[in-house]
Every structure is written in structure tokens, then in C-alpha cells.
Amino acid sequence: MRILILSRNPSLYSTQSLLRACYRRQHYARVVDHLMCDLLIDDNELSVIYQGEKLEGYDALIPRIGSSVTTYGANVIRQFEEMGVFTVSRSDSILKARNKLRCYQILASNGIPIPKTLLPNFAQLDNMLIKEEFDLPVVVKLPESTHGLGVILSESYQNATSTIEAFFRMKQKVIVQEFIAESRGSDLRVLIVDGEIIASMKREAQEGEFRSNLHRGATGRIEPISEKEALMCRRVCKILDLDVAGVDILRSDKGSLVLEVNSSPGLEGIETITGKDVAGAIVRFIEKRLRKRNKYLVGKAR
Ligand SMILES: Nc1ncnc2c1ncn2[C@@H]1O[C@H](COP(=O)(O)OP(=O)(O)O)[C@@H](O)[C@H]1O
Ligand SMILES: [Mg+2]
Which of 51, 52, 66, 296 has its CA at a distance of 20 to 30 angstroms from the CA of residue 119? Predict the structure, then answer.
């Protein structure tokens, strides 16, 4: 197979791990920076042009789309989708998962438990609504935060309100969320490929920190998840139509809650901590899907 990996940086661990998995399974693979791709639509013909070269003849796409370039990345993926290239993550699903509010709306309406969340927009900022709805401390976060940057713990309503005001002044939306104190600075990262739980780990924030992102100095260790949590993760993937995802879970007194869904989950932490071959699972998934698809196409041609 000919596999194209969309990634801004070929030297990143995740990109390298995917490349190695492709080579190990005898596939041709190439890394392309999606921000260096131009999209041409000409008389019903779509093409992706990379530094003057038309990208043609690829069987599958593995998008590794970072948070800062989701919209353009999704445009590039959609172009490939319309060109008939199989993609591990579809553009619509990536966009749904990326924005926390949008993701919560979809998950909650499908019965998935999430932390109580508010998107303030109109309420006066001497903010009765926050006082009425949330106990202290309260979490204020950017709908598109990443690596824990843009996630703030406010110990007072006054602090929450002035934080929100500051973001509003910069024309930046924020969400307010109940703080799940019981999780004690830890969360679970569950890696799912094709509806199967490939790996799971617990991440624990460093001393004096409530954010359990590895990028914020948290440590990780293998942690099994319950049958109920596994079921919930599979349902999340189904609802968002994601075949590869990192689902983050907070264990609360009310049960396990979905905190976040990552459509391009980092592989370094989960592979090195759990020893599981996530990249290999992704490549095997592509093989399986393409076999199915080719069978269907051959059947149709007959
Ligand atoms: N409502 C919350 N209650 C408890 N801890 C939280 C809450 N929201 C975020 N955290 C902590 O902060 C970390 C980062 O928050 P998250 O919403 O995942 O943003 P990011 O996308 O930047 O990682 C989480 O992994 C978790 O440890
Ligand atoms: Mg997170």
C-alpha cells in the first residue's frame, strides 16, 4: 500500500512510530506537511498540490492534525476524502472532537456522562449563573486548549469572573466546568483503534498541579479500565465516528466522565508507558479496511 502521513513535523515521535509501523508491514509511506499543501478544484476534478507536485496514487491517509491548524488540516483531509482516498480519521469527526463544547454537546445528547459545563456568553459577569450552578473551585478553559495550556483553576467566583472577562476582551470564548476534585489530579487515557481498546494508562499530575497532561510534567502508568469504561469509550468513538481516538476519562464520585476526545492522540506517552504497539494497530486497521473496500470494488465490477 501507499500511505500518506499528514504531519507538520516528520521528526515527532508519533510520526516516526507510524512510519516505522508502515515500513515493518512492507508499505510505502511518506510524510507531508498539510500546511504546505494547496487545494485545487478545477472542473469537477480535485487535487492536492504539495510544493508544486500533485499528490496522486495514495491508498490511505493518516492525518496527524495539531490543534493550532485543525481547520486547514480538515480542509486538506476533506479534499483527499472527495478524491476517494481512505482516511484513518475523517475531517468531520476531527472537527467535532477538536472543539470541547461541540464535542460535549454531541456526547451528552447521546447519553455519555461529562462534567457539568457552561458556555457563558450573555450572563452578566457579576455572575450569578456561575454561583448558582457551580461549587468552588471551578475550571475555566479554552474550548480548544491543548496540552493543558488554557485550563485554569479558579478558587473564587471573583477570580473566575475576571478570568472570563479577560478572555472576552481578547474575543476568546471560554467554558466553565465543575472541578472533579475526587480525581485528585489524575485522569485516564484510553487508546481505541477500530472499536478495540489497545492501551490504557493513568496520568498523575506533578505535585502542586491539577492538570495531568504529560506535557505539564505528569507521570503515567499502565491502568486497566473497567468493562463499563471500555463500553463507554467504544460508544464515544461510534458517536463521533472515530476509528482512532484517545479518550480521556475522569473518575468521579458520580462515575466515570469523558473529559476529552483526541482524534490525533500522541503516541509517545502511551506507547512507551504501556509498551503497546499503537502505530502497528493503526496500520493493521488500514490494511483491514482496504481489503474490505477492494473486495467490494471487485464485487461491484463483476
Ligand atoms: N473539570 C475538571 N476537573 C478536574 N480536573 C480537570 C478538569 N478539567 C481539566 N482537568 C485537568 O486538566 C487537564 C487538562 O484539561 P483538558 O480539558 O484535558 O484540556 P487539554 O485539552 O488542554 O488537555 C486534564 O487532563 C485534567 O487533569
Ligand atoms: Mg487533555
Answer: 66
Ligand 1 atom showing the smallest separation from residue 260 Cα: 18
In total, how many domains does the chain have?
3
CB of 220 closer than 8 Å to CB of 201: yes
Domain of 223 in residue numbering reads as 96-113+182-263
Is the pLDDT at 255 greater than 70, yes or no?
Answer: yes
Residue 115 alpha carbon, nearest atom of ligand 1: 1
Residues 237 and 100 in one domain: yes
Question: Do 108 and 224 reside in the same domain of the chain?
Answer: yes
- 43-86 per-position pLDDT tens digit: 989 999 999 999 999 999 999 987 777 889 999 999 999 999 99
* Residue 146 CA: distances (Å) to CA of 32, 78, 171, 260: 23, 23, 18, 10
**What strands, in cross-sheet order, belong to the sheet with 196-204?**
219-222, 196-204, 186-193, 244-252, 255-262
Pocket flag, ligand 1, residue 259 (CB < 6 Å): yes
**Residue 175 vs residues 136, 150, 248: alpha-carbon distances, Å:** 15, 10, 18
CATH of residue 134's domain is 3.30.1490.20
pTM of the predicted model over 0.85: yes
141 Cβ closer than 6 Å to some ligand 1 atom: yes
